[in-house]
Structures are given as structure tokens and as C-alpha cells.
Amino acid sequence: MSHRHPATISARAGIAEDTAFGAITPPLYLTSTYQLPAFGQPGPYDYSRSNNPTRDILGEALAELEGGAKAIVTNTGMSACLLALQLLTPADTLVIPHDCYGGSYRLFTNLAQKKQAFKLVIVNFQQQDWPEQIKRAAPTMIWLETPSNPLLQITDIAAVCQLAKSLTAKVVVDNTFLSPALQQPLALGADLVVHSTTKFINGHSDVIGGAVICKTQACGDELKWWANCLGLTAGAFDSYLTLRGLRTLTPRLQLQQQNTAEVVAFLQQHPLIGKVYYPGLVDHPGHQIAKRQQSGFGAMCSFELSAPPALLTTFFSNLRYFTLAQSLGGTESLICHPATMTHASMDAAAQATAGIGATLIRVSVGIESAQDLIADLALALDAVAAVQQQ
Ligand SMILES: Cc1ncc(COP(=O)(O)O)c(C=O)c1O
């Protein structure tokens, strides 16, 4: 485990290491292939699908941030998920949470049903009997997403890992919603961490990318082999941009969290807002676990609009600073309707089981002024109230 603070690791990744010209920022190596030193003599790099110096700097920073032996930088978050699943065979059982990201849910269920890639068991980690559900499943791998998307439910990573060890199951944690600046699952006992770096790690909504970070070198080597074999690795330019975004991860998140706390306080007292889902709230069922295993409550929250679904259009169309869009984790605030957007790939029954209703709204809070963000929400809610009174 690195002794360096995440803020230092991020800010210093690859800085002042250029041996050719002393460039402060690491160069962008836009090359598909590399000259051999001589016939029959391999160089450090041969082909950029296998290895690229710019991608390697990002990988080394992510491995250090998560406290892993090795990171594999992939071209999307979904390819990072697919890569981690290469550890499974058709004889193995994968346990997934009932409320994970819709795209991950689509990948798991379709690989299991259409390709028989593994056996799949869905567990509700919010039910008290989750340990019994897991023991019955006898899994090879347990997939966690905490806080979950979109309801910000919290799972006790250390408790799941302890049980997994006794069953010799591997634990994978999708750490996209917090990033290693706020949660380090490997230190809590997990074996792998998966990221959509598209989100907080890059933080500027201009790259799609992912990463898998392995606790052990052996696992890292195996997945690096698969990433090259399947062609899942990220391009140099995307890696360069992501490295640039990563430098400000800690200060961005600090500001985004501060803004989120203020937005949540506003939402909580508004008559047109029903339940607010944010792990920082003392009455959130996962608050105590979040306090223990996270170093902050994050910049995502969800809430129920206390109005008929027909008024969602009025609400969304009256917002100026919360842009209606799928993604999250950027410097700009985004808002989405999980049932028809991020979680549309779940059928109605799966959505109902996951608690995704017609008036659930998810917010990713950016770095704008909290005052402006709150005024924006207030105006949109006033517009909803005005329609209701007609
Ligand atoms: C928690 C989580 N995991 C994985 C993904 C997939 O990442 P990508 O869109 O970068 O492929 C997403 C995307 O929204 C996500 O929210």
C-alpha cells in the first residue's frame, strides 16, 4: 500500500520523468508500433495494443491509488467489467447485487443466459440474510457496487470479503461512484477493483474509459494477457486525457461533495421532494458503514419528485445548470431519470426489484456555485408547482 496521499499520487503521476527532453508533463506517445533495437532483440515496447508508455503511466497511478499490484487501463468501463469476468468459467457462479448499473446488469445477465459464460445468482445485499444467500450460491466471484447506482445503497465491503475468503471466492468492487480518493476496496479485503474512468477519474466528460486494478501481480498478469488478447486496452490519447483529468481528482471531489451536501440539504426541506437518497444523511440505512469504509460521502444523490410522472418534463425543461444526460462525475452538474435512461436496459420487474420508480431522479453534482445550483432547482420546482396549481 502506498504511503502517499491520493492527492499527491494524482497530481504527480508521470511528472518530471521525461528522460529525452525533461518535459514536465509526460509525452503523449501516439504510435501504434515501436522499432526493435536490433533483429532478434525485443525492446520495452512493441505494439500499442499490448503496451503504450502513456497508458502505462495512467495504469501505474491507478494501481498506486487503489493499492493494487497492477492496473489494466481499458477502452470503456464496460470492457473493464468484461475483462474481470475473464477469470470465470462456465462451471463458476457469479453473485451480483440486485441494484447495479444497468449496463453491468445487461452484461452479466446476457453472458450468463445467452453464452452460458458462468452461472448467475442475484443477491439483495440490503436484506439481513445476505450471508445465507451467498453461502447458498457458493460463488467463485462476488460483484459489489457500493454506493450503488442509482439508489446509493451501501454494502459492507469488509464483511462481504471476510465471508468470501471463507468460501475462496474473489470479490470485485465497482468503485466508479467514489473513486480511490474516497474509497479503497482492496484495503478492505477485495481482490479486484473496476472503474468506469469516464466518470470521476477523468472528471471532464470528454473520454470513455475504464480500468481493472488487481491486488496481486498474478491476477494482474492474467488480465493483462486477456486485455491484449481481446483487444480491450485503451488508446494513448484517451489515456493522456484521463491522466490529465486524474491530476485534480481530490480537489474536484472535495468541492463536488461540499456542493452535494448543500444541494441535499435544500432537497430535504422542499415540499415537492419525497425521499432523498444520500449516504451522508444520518437516517440513510448505510450511513454508519459509509462513514467507516469511505473517506467522504461522494457527489451523487437521488431523490423522488413528489409529483405525477407527467410533470417530469416540466421539471427537467426548467433546469439551466443541471443538464439532462446519462453520465456522472464531471465538473458540470448532470441530472437523469434512471428508469428511462441509465437503467433502461433493466426490464420493468428488475427495475421494480431494484427500487427504481417512475419519479426517481439521479443527480451528479459538479463544481458550479452551490448557490446557483440550488436556485436552479428551486426555479424548476416552482415551475412544477405552478403547473400543479392550474
Ligand atoms: C457504476 C458503473 N460501472 C460501469 C459503467 C460503465 O462504464 P462506461 O460507460 O465507461 O463503459 C458505468 C457507466 O455509467 C457505471 O455507472
From TrEMBL:
GO cellular component term, pick one: cytoplasm
GO molecular function: cystathionine gamma-lyase activity; cystathionine gamma-synthase activity; pyridoxal phosphate binding
Highest taxon of the lineage: Bacteria
InterPro entries noted in UniProt: Cys/Met-Metab_PyrdxlP-dep_enz, Cys_met_metab_PP, O_succ_thio_ly, PyrdxlP-dep_Trfase, PyrdxlP-dep_Trfase_major, PyrdxlP-dep_Trfase_small
Classification via SUPFAM superfamilies: PLP-dependent transferases (SSF53383)
Keyword Repeat attached: no
Keyword terms: Pyridoxal phosphate
Gene3D superfamilies xrefs: Aspartate Aminotransferase, domain 1, Type I PLP-dependent aspartate aminotransferase-like (Major domain)
Cofactor: pyridoxal 5'-phosphate
N6-(pyridoxal phosphate)lysine sites (modified residues): K199
GO terms classed as biological process: cysteine biosynthetic process via cystathionine; transsulfuration
Keyword Transmembrane helix: no
NCBIfam families attached to this UniProt entry: O_succ_thio_ly (TIGR02080)
Family: Belongs to the trans-sulfuration enzymes family.
Protein name from the UniProt record: Cystathionine gamma-synthase
Organism: Alishewanella jeotgali KCTC 22429
